[in-house]
Design goal:
The chain is built from 13 helices and 11 strands. The longest helix has 18 residues, at 266-283. With 380 residues, the chain is of the alpha/beta class. It folds into 2 domains: 14-114, Ribosomal Protein S8, Chain: A, domain 1 (2-Layer Sandwich); 123-379, TIM Barrel (Alpha-Beta Barrel). The strands form 2 sheets. It has an 8-stranded parallel β-barrel, surrounded by 6 helices. A 3-stranded antiparallel sheet has the order 1-3-2.
Length: 380
């Protein structure tokens, strides 16, 4: 009697694998849902909701983890982890439509959640620092000629977006006035117009005044590392002009964010805070398709927190917005005493993981290396 041979299948293209064994091609799309699995965390259900959700999940062969006291009703609320194949989870959602306690709404949210897909190729955001004190290249491009030359070089290397900043937000840095930022930014924006550069220009600023003037001068994205916390007028400006905004998570301000940052559950806390900021943006009239979220590597996080974010970056896709990751040359690499060439090598290594996980944007200093990386990973 022959030995059985077993092999785990690790691929996103399960349709191709089941077709290869002779599976009915007319049923492939539907059948593949039985082989794709998700674990979904649902926050703050009442014990009644949680009990119904668990029983519904079990009835279709899925499962749902709840607090152990849910069944005794000794707690008011519990988070739940609902797990199963896509096919099973769609059945759960369908059954919840007929359940009380507001679970019909949860049904629709599960259906919408299951529709979230990441099919886009990762885009490169090239960094241009017009600052004397940025952690990586402070002062290198403060000169107009060098700045415009580097801007054109990054475009030539394949940048999809150029992110220009005139205020360093590295740990322990101090704010730069709006007028000082504008004085540094406007000459570069004028150069972009004069040269008929069509690549999207992002402005890295926390100031609504800077954002508005830059938008009027051609910027189409605002990168607010404070996530609307620094300037209460920022969301109104974004909504008024209908541009894209990058909402970043930051715990504290650059002056104090690295003073013993602490989380009970770093991924949950960042996720829920970003969800809160998305809801705020929507309430201000910003369109959801114009929102990009950034979990904020190095902004009020320990080195261990940063690596946890990278490993679990896919969880932020559940927010339903595009996701950007910016880890280029940052202190999590633990290479403070090395040159930028060495930092770029390890940046490439970590961004390979982000690209594999289909993150929408990577914000980097070395565009050329990352463009080559994308071409190589595309072959894989």
């Amino acid at each position: 009697m022959n030995d059985f041979i077993l092999k785990e299948i690790k691929t996103d293209d399960i349709e191709k694998e089941i077709e290869k064994i002779g599976y009915d091609k007319t049923y492939t799309d539907c059948g593949a849902q039985k082989f794709r699995y998700k674990n979904i965390k649902v926050y703050g259900l009442t014990f009644s909701q949680a009990n119904i959700l668990k029983q519904t999940a079990l009835s279709v062969g899925a499962d749902c983890a709840t607090h152990r006291e849910t069944i005794t009703a000794k707690i008011d609320k519990t988070d739940c982890i609902l797990g199963g194949s896509l096919s099973q989870l769609r059945k759960v959602a369908d059954k919840l439509k007929k359940q009380p306690f507001g679970l019909k709404k949860l049904s629709g949210e599960i259906d919408s959640f299951l529709e979230i897909k990441k099919d886009n190729n990762t885009k490169i955001v090239g960094i241009l620092n017009l600052t004397p004190d940025s952690f990586s290249d402070g002062g290198e491009f403060l000169d107009y000629e060098k700045a415009t030359e580097h801007l054109e070089y990054m475009i030539e290397c394949g940048a999809d977006i150029i992110d220009i900043g005139a205020e360093s937000t590295k740990p322990y840095s101090t704010p730069v006035s709006a007028d000082a930022q504008i004085d540094r930014l406007l000459p570069i924006l004028n150069f972009v117009k004069e040269q008929n550069i069509t690549i999207p220009i992002s402005i890295d600023t926390r100031s609504a005044k800077v954002a508005e003037i830059c938008i009027r001068n051609g910027a189409s994205i605002i990168n607010d590392v404070s996530g609307f916390d620094y300037d209460e007028n920022m969301a109104d400006v974004i909504a008024q002009y209908g541009v894209k905004v990058i909402i970043q998570h930051s715990k504290g301000t650059p002056e104090n964010m690295q003073e013993n940052p602490c989380y009970e559950n770093v991924i949950d806390e960042i996720y829920l805070k970003l969800k809160e900021k998305i809801d705020y943006a929507l309430s201000k009239g910003i369109k959801k398709e114009n929102i990009i979220v950034d979990p904020g590597i190095g902004f009020g996080k320990t080195r261990e927190d940063n690596f946890e974010i990278i490993k679990r970056i896919e969880e932020f896709y559940g927010l339903g917005c595009e996701v950007m990751l910016g880890l280029s040359r940052k202190s999590l690499l633990n290479l403070q005493d090395n040159d930028n060439q060495m930092k770029d090598i390890f940046t490439i290594a970590l961004n390979t993981l982000a690209i594999e996980r289909k993150v929408d944007y990577i914000r980097v200093h070395n565009v050329q290396l990352h463009k080559i990386l994308l071409e190589v990973t595309d072959k894989i």
